[in-house]
Write a sequence for this structure.
């Protein structure tokens, strides 16, 4: 026993760094293991954050949920510079401002769905998600005559069930990849969320 204790005492300085190095290698292997990475990557359902393109492009999007004071001014500015944007509209906003929905459509802007009442979608059942999306899409389609193909979750909140349910409805869930942080500044388009994606 004394021989073993003496050997440990002599090599004590090497044991700490060796154990640390082995621990780092083991953690790296576990985190990057193909079986673990494959499982975690395939398990999480994600909306579309960006699309790979051959050229440089920016997708400008706006979420409209509350006021309407600057809608026409914004449309005029976008048209002046030949910019086409996507507007994600809440159904309650569509109810209040149908003329603005028509103006956006007439100006060539893309119109997407932002739910009917702006709820926290991940807290809803599958049926409630379908109802929120269907009601808003129906309102938009009644005005524009065009099928709604894009959806953005209120607050940017989603989970696997939300993404899967939206996709099963034949609609593409869209998320921004650069946040303007306008909600933190209490400003932005009509007091609503303003987002853009690159």
């Amino acid at each position: 026993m004394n021989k073993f204790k003496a050997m440990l005492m002599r090599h004590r300085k090497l044991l700490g760094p060796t154990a640390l190095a082995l621990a780092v290698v083991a953690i790296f292997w576990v985190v990057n293991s193909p079986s673990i990475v494959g499982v975690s990557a395939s398990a999480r359902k994600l909306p579309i954050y960006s699309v790979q393109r051959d050229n440089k492009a920016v997708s400008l999007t706006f979420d409209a949920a509350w006021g309407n004071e600057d809608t026409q001014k914004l449309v005029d500015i976008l048209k002046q510079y030949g910019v086409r944007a996507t507007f994600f509209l809440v159904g309650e906003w569509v109810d209040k401002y149908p003329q603005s929905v028509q103006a956006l459509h007439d100006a060539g802007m893309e119109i997407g769905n932002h739910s009917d009442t702006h709820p926290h979608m991940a807290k809803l059942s599958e049926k409630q998600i379908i109802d929120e999306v269907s009601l808003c899409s129906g309102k938009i389609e009644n005005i524009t005559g065009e099928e709604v193909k894009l959806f953005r979750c209120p607050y940017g909140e989603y989970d696997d069930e939300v993404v899967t349910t939206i996709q099963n409805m034949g609609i593409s869930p869209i998320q921004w990849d650069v946040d303007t942080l306008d909600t933190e500044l209490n400003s932005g388009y009509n007091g609503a969320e303003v987002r853009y994606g690159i």
